[in-house]
Backbone:
């Protein structure tokens, strides 16, 4: 996957990277078992502090998104989430709460919000299917 | 006193004639940390570094590196410090290979094999005269020389000064490459905020002779926020706002005041509301927003012109070799 960072952004570089990895997994661009670049590789590629990459990977690991294998590197986690059902429920509630609150402030009706959520899920599904297709054709990841 | 700090600057003061440059600078760099010292041109970044390395005497306070004051640095300790000077001074008539040989001769530790391998990787032509190298190549050579001594701590005075965008990126990449994985401590001064954002663990903003702000870059966004106070934004209110705890800087705007706040606790917020009136919700601030708010002269209008010092404006290029 291609990472990109914006030094003018209001999110920290580490926040940006964490989000990009999660988004790539949601789109199916990264799948369970895929190896992430090493700390050094990614630091060099993006010209950023290796400590930042290392912190990003630690955060992804504690969120159960990736696993570290000693000496082998970091891999996208396969199978179920490392987080407990309870923790996952808690996070989901928090996210939905945030989204609903913001949508209310933007003066959207509940119906519009439901539709937007549905559209986003469909978009992800389409991207996932297209990533799977290109993978089966063997042209994934030049 | 924190004795684990690799660089420990306490209450450092320095005047040149009547001009006060440093007025009580405090700064500590912890082992393995990359620390960026930022400030506008002429704010004393170089002065602090010169004192730290023993090239200049302080008038009060002290600056220690590897536990000792600059004046007490032994050749052995100096060998543990890599220094990249502003403008990357080198002997003009030498070729790249001569420079490497010369540097080896001046130091106890100088890994020639590593230096040669790295020179080749950076594609610095060994038969080229130093004067013919581009600024970017000179910066890379200068970094290579500093790192060939396998230093415990690296001090760089505005290493990217005078480099264009491409050279700067190449320099950053070689810096990340050469620093290696083992946590080496680095202090570098800069006014390229995008570089700082990429490279630094911690940032200190020097203005008016003191650090106006210091924070890890990771925490910066949660610790610092902007708040707007609607109203006439008169001078009296602005001065009052400036003196309140939690307020770092105040800028006058058309329709009121913009406060730059740090570590604004609920108690401090209540206090601000009581003294200044209603506050807006927090607005996040980027490093550039913070830098401008802290270092623009009071009343200096925030326009594109004022951003020039942050970009490299092409002035004061001291990159000529001597």
Residues:
């Amino acid at each position: 996957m291609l990472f990109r960072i914006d030094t003018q952004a209001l999110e920290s570089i580490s926040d940006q990277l964490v989000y990009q990895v999660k988004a790539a997994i949601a789109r199916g661009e990264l799948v369970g078992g895929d190896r992430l670049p090493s700390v050094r590789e990614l630091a060099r590629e993006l010209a950023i502090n290796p400590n930042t990459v290392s912190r990003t990977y630690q955060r992804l690991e504690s969120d159960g998104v990736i696993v570290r294998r000693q000496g082998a590197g970091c891999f996208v986690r396969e199978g179920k989430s490392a987080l407990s059902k309870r923790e996952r429920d808690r996070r989901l509630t928090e996210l939905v709460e945030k989204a609903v609150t913001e949508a209310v402030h933007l003066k959207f009706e509940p119906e519009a919000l439901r539709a937007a959520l549905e559209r986003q899920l469909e978009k992800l599904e389409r991207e996932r299917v297209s990533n799977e297709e290109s993978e089966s054709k063997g042209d994934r990841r030049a | 006193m924190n004795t684990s700090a690799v660089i420990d600057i306490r209450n450092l003061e320095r005047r040149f004639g009547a001009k006060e440059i440093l007025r009580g600078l405090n700064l500590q760099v912890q082992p393995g940390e990359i620390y960026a010292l930022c400030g506008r041109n002429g704010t004393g970044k170089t002065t602090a570094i010169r004192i730290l390395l023993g090239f200049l005497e302080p008038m009060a306070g002290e600056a220690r590196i590897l536990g000792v004051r600059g004046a007490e640095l032994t050749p052995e300790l100096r060998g543990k410090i890599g220094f990249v000077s502003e403008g990357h001074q080198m002997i003009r008539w030498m070729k790249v290979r001569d420079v490497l040989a010369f540097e080896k001769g001046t130091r106890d530790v100088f890994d020639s094999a590593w230096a040669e391998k790295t020179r080749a990787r950076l594609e610095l032509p060994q038969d080229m005269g130093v004067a013919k190298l581009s600024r970017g190549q000179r910066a890379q050579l200068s970094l290579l020389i500093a790192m060939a001594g396998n230093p415990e701590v690296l001090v760089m005075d505005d290493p990217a000064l005078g480099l264009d965008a491409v050279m700067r990126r190449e320099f950053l990449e070689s810096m990340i490459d050469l620093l290696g994985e083992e946590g080496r401590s680095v202090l570098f001064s800069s006014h390229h905020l995008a570089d700082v954002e990429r490279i630094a663990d911690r940032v200190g903003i020097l203005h008016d002779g003191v650090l106006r702000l210091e924070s890890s870059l990771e925490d910066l966004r949660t610790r610092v926020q902007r708040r707007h106070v609607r109203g006439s934004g008169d001078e009296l209110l602005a001065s009052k706002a400036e003196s309140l705890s939690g307020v770092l800087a105040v800028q006058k705007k058309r329709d009121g005041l913009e406060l730059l706040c740090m570590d604004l606790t609920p108690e401090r917020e209540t206090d601000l509301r009581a003294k200044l009136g209603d506050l807006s919700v927090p607005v996040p601030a980027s490093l550039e927003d913070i830098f401008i708010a802290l270092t623009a002269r009071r009343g200096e209008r925030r326009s594109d012109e004022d951003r020039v010092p942050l970009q490299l404006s092409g002035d004061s290029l001291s990159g000529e070799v001597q």
Chain B is about 35% helix and 25% strand. The longest strand of chain B covers residues 19-29. The CA atoms of residues 96 and 125 of chain B lie 7 Å apart. The radius of gyration of chain B is 21 Å.
